[in-house]
Structures are given as structure tokens and as C-alpha cells.
Specification:
The protein is built from 14 helices and no strands. It has about 280 residues and is an all-alpha fold.
């Protein structure tokens, strides 16, 4: 019996580690292919296989071309401007909405919550005609504020995260503050909001990655070349008949670096945020 148990444990370990190795390989292979492509010349990319090594591992011509011709440095600043304002607006509006939905009992409250869930289920592409007309009517087309308004106003997930965290804050704190003469806004600003720091960190990370990688909204609502962001700057190397894929690969590697650093440094906040939000 002891031998059978030991054999089952070894078999379990083999299955577990084998699955992890397989999953890691599947996840890393595209990244390896992308890195190799970014170091190849145009001729090497056209004639060699995907996983063939480049002739020069220190060839940085594609990276310099991506930075200069792709105007990626201004695109980074444009992305940062949109990201910071959108993040601030998302945290303020999302937390205030969650506070109203969680702390107040009012008529049609369940209907409002249902409409939020319904909006999350509707594909955004199906509403683009109406959305475009609204943005154009507000005279925000071809401005950065069109993307900012859309990023702030379409974030149902952030509201849900704030609601889950807010349910763990005792209502007795609100009641004591109100008895002392505090208004509901004061309760939100001085009691509830500071206690939402884990939720705020989670929302900032998730929303920041989504905005940083977004292509469709900037491409559709900010077509001017002066308003390019990181994602749309990659489109500069694609022509009507051909594309400079080795330069595009180098540009993708450049855009991945900030996201990778942010994720590795803040991944515990992401996992803790999702875990605490689900268990509350």
C-alpha cells in the first residue's frame, strides 16, 4: 500500500509539473518568436523560419526605426495623458456610484443594477454608431477627450469591484459619523474612500493595462497622426500592400516592456484584489 501511495504521489507530481511546463511553453513561444523577429533584418524575416535565430543578436535598428519613424515617444506621452485622467475619473465615478448603490435603498435600485449588468453584456461594437454620433455631437471627435470620456463611462467592472469591497466596510461607521453630524458625502470622502485602497489599486492596475493596450477607440475617435497612442503607432508600419513586420515586432516589444514591469511589480495587488472581491 505504501508503494502504491508513493507511486500515486510521483504520478501526481509528474502531471502537475508536466502541465505547468506545457502551459509555460505555449505562453512563451509567441514571445520568443516576437523577440527573434524584432532582431532580424527585412530579408531575414522574409526568408527564415519563425524560430530561426537572427544573424546579429545585437541588431537594434528595428527598435530605433520604431521609436523615430513610429513617433512612439510622443505616443507614450499621449497615452500617459489619457491614462492618468481616465484612471482618476474611473476611481471617482466608480467609487461614488458603488457607494450610492451599496449604501442607499431607493426605488428602482435593482433596475439600475440590472441595467449596469445589461450594459456589460452588450457588445460595444453594436453600439458604435450611436456612440460615434454622441461623441461627434459633443464636438469631441479627433480629440483626446473623446477617448477619455469613453474610458471613464464604460467601466462596469470597476463599479462591481468597488461594490464588492464596500460590502466589507461596516455600515456602523457610516451611522456613527452621521450621528455626529457628517453628511453622506463626508462619510464617503473621509471614511469609505480611504478604506477602499485595495480596491482602488486593483482598479488602477486593471484599467491601466486595458487603456494602455486599447487600439480600437483611439484609432476610430482620434484619427489624427498628432494624437497617436502606443497601440495606434504600430499601424504606421503597415502599408496598403505590405508591412514591415520586423519593425512592428520591435515596436510591440517596446510597448510590452512597461506593461510587463507594472504587472511583475504589482501582481500581488491584482490577485489579492480579485480574491477579496470574490470572497466578500
Amino acid at each position: 500500500m505504501t508503494g502504491n501511495a508513493a507511486g500515486r504521489r510521483w504520478l501526481g507530481r509528474i502531471v502537475v509539473y508536466g502541465s505547468l511546463i506545457l502551459a509555460s511553453t505555449v505562453a512563451l513561444l509567441p514571445l520568443v518568436a516576437l523577440l527573434m523577429a524584432s532582431l532580424k533584418t527585412g530579408t531575414e524575416f522574409a526568408t527564415q523560419g519563425v524560430f530561426d535565430a537572427p544573424s546579429n543578436w545585437f541588431n537594434l535598428d528595428n527598435f530605433s526605426t520604431a521609436l523615430i519613424e513610429g513617433q512612439m515617444v510622443p505616443a507614450f506621452f499621449s497615452t500617459l495623458f489619457i491614462l492618468v485622467i481616465s484612471e482618476i475619473g474611473t476611481v471617482i465615478i466608480g467609487s461614488m456610484t458603488a457607494y450610492a448603490l451599496d449604501r442607499f435603498q431607493f426605488r428602482l435600485r435593482r433596475v439600475v443594477i440590472f441595467l449596469f449588468l445589461l450594459a456589460a453584456l452588450v457588445p460595444t461594437v453594436t453600439a458604435q454608431v450611436a456612440t460615434f454620433q454622441i461623441i461627434n455631437g459633443l464636438q469631441l471627435f479627433n480629440t483626446r477627450f473623446s477617448a477619455i470620456l469613453l474610458f471613464i463611462g464604460t467601466d462596469i467592472v470597476s463599479i462591481y469591484i468597488f461594490i464588492q469591497f464596500m460590502r466589507g466596510i461596516p455600515r456602523s461607521l457610516d451611522e456613527v459619523a452621521i450621528l455626529d453630524g457628517a453628511s453622506h458625502f463626508t462619510v464617503y470622502r473621509r471614511i469609505v474612500f480611504p478604506l477602499l485602497k485595495p480596491a482602488i489599486a486593483t482598479v488602477l492596475i486593471i484599467k491601466g493595462v486595458a487603456i494602455y493596450n486599447e487600439f480600437y477607440i483611439p484609432w476610430l475617435y482620434m484619427p489624427s497622426s498628432d494624437l497617436g497612442v502606443v497601440a495606434t503607432s504600430l499601424f504606421r508600419f503597415r502599408g496598403p500592400t505590405s508591412a514591415r513586420w520586423e519593425v512592428i515586432a520591435a515596436a510591440v516589444v517596446i510597448t510590452m516592456i512597461p506593461t510587463l514591469i507594472a504587472f511583475l511589480g504589482l501582481q500581488r495587488f491584482i490577485y489579492n484584489g480579485f480574491t477579496r472581491g470574490v470572497t466578500k
